[in-house]
Amino acid sequence: RTRYIQTELGFHERLFVAVLTSKATLNTLAVAVNKTVAHHFPRLLYFTGLRSAKVPHGMVLVAHGDERPIWLMYETMHYIHQHFGSDYDWFYIMQDDTYAQAEQVKALVTHLSINQDVYLGRAEEFIGGDEQARYCHGGFGYLISRSLLLKLHPHLDSCRNEILSVRPDEWLGRCIIDFLGITCVSQLQGQHYHTYELAKNTEPEKEEEEEFQAAFAVHPVSDMTLMYRLHKHFSRIQLDRAYQEIQDLQMQIRNLTSLTPAGETGLTWPVGINAPFLPKSRFEVISWDYFTEQYLFSCPDGSPKCELSGASKADVSEIIESALEQLNSRYQPLLRFSKRQLLNGYRRFDPTRGMEYTLDLLLEAVTQKGHRHVLAKRVSLVRPLSKVEIIPMPYVTEATRVQLVLPLTVQDLDFVANFLDMFAMNTLDTHDNALLTLLFIYHPYDAQRVSQVDVFAGVKAMVGELEKRYAEVKIPWISVKTEVPSQVKLMDIVSKKHPVDTLFFLASVWTEINMEFLNRCRMNTISNWQVFFPVHFQEFNPALVYRGEQTASSSTDFLRDGHFDRHSFAEACFYNSDYMTARTKLAADILERDEVLESMEVFDVFLHYSGLHLFRAVEPGLVQKYALRSCNPRLSEELYHRCVLSNLEGLASRSHLAMALFEQEQANST
């Protein structure tokens, strides 16, 4: 399982950052550090002696209970070793009155070998000590390798008892020198740790010294405002460097294009971005969505026109603003453009390069002499795909027990035998860690006659046969009387009868259970994090697809004669604890109006009341044979409409339907 190869092989994360703060500066300088550079580091913790009554939002704080500087340093090093010593290669320790260029520090550790004992920072002499020995000044931050931390940890107690010092950075430096013989260095393996000491009343925007521009860390930062000004200044420097690097790379690409087989015709726009996707057939053509400044003419709900709002409105506004900015930067000072109106707008998402836009703008151009002219201009823009980020996910295994829940109505009786056969073959015979609970849904009329005629007697007999064949297996059932089998109401009953840590798989009678899907159900469902709603593959009606011919059964035809049914939300994988939490919020929202539940599915409960990730994806391991579903008109209009659409789209493909109509017309004409 490749997603766990890093954990199983013992690979380490690269960088851990510790920020030393105090009760007095926790809500000021520490907050400024958190807002400026914390999100650039993969892991950052704040260490203090005493904590405030209220910890600022978004900060992970460790309080040691003592404000003495040496004690704080000792406890911090001990804590880092105990909790993170085996997980990270590098440890960067800084104070809350330090501004660190996070990207520069991260780039630095990528160029250093982890096989050496590294103590890197701004090297300072000890007062009255050995001229050769140096310690790393704490105000400018310093870097310690994992190997050094592991060797240092056994000596921390001795250092605390034997070394006297007022400054914690001097104490740590003396400890490393006395017991390990390693001194602080400012450069190592060709890498320089640049620092800059701020003078009083410094104006960061006016600092032009090369030493300041190249600094990894700046100290001392006296207040929050100065921290934010430093961050703005260095962010601008990094942005200018990035733009310059892009221009240099584009120039190199242009110069090299003539040497390629395609020549200059192979140069794509924008330079350096992947070429647009070239469809191989008309079915692969990516369509454009039309929009204006007020409306979008390709709506998520399928309606032809909807109001432009939210993220889409912000996207359109930003892209128009960017277009004007690019036009003015190109033509000023000769011309200055201002927007009068967006005439037409088109956008599409190209998975090979990003979001593409074409805008027809009505502009007013003003010359240097003040002459005005109105003109229409078409511009094209691309919002490229940015760097792909791997989202950290909690660790899950394939050993979790899955509790299948199968609701059954009278209309489902013809399909139960096949479901139970597949369940026995793919789970019971293979000893998969999966259990089954049946939910018999009785119509009130059938429930009154259950003592004379039980409509589910045949199913109960089949369950009894399975329990005889597999002595260790018990398949319980729950009987429910209702005219409207609301998925949420049924799940409420099942939820109360199982432990909170149960992993449910809500199945349908047409589902063919297999080990491959059950494992994906386990892997894609994460307690208190994510629920999984697979989109099953629905086979088409064989009477329309094959028209009397033999049904294709070879593996090459797998997933050919069918479609993924995006209208169905019948299958779901989720933990009982997550359902109970979302259901509690729903109950508080609807109060006693239980009729609202008839218009909802489990998907709606998680979507509106959970705050969890909803993973909705096509599932090729979940294949259903064709069957005409029975749509209950007592359900909500939306649920009934989705059921009807699922039946209609599940008949056959457009080509199959066209062929059937053609043959019918041929037969009628003869």
Automatic annotation (TrEMBL):
GO cellular component, one term: Golgi cisterna membrane
Entry EC number(s): 2.4.1.-
Stretches that traverse the bilayer: none
GO molecular-function terms, A-Z: glucuronosyl-N-acetylgalactosaminyl-proteoglycan 4-beta-N-acetylgalactosaminyltransferase activity; N-acetylgalactosaminyl-proteoglycan 3-beta-glucuronosyltransferase activity
Location in the cell: Golgi apparatus, Golgi stack membrane
Key words, A-Z: Glycoprotein, Golgi apparatus, Membrane, Signal-anchor, Transferase, Transmembrane, Transmembrane helix
Signal peptide region: none
Membrane topology term: Single-pass type II membrane protein
Principal location: Golgi
Catalytic EC class: transferase
Pfam families for this protein: CHGN
Family recorded in the similarity comment: Belongs to the chondroitin N-acetylgalactosaminyltransferase family.
UniProt name for this protein: Hexosyltransferase
Native species: Spheniscus mendiculus (Galapagos penguin)
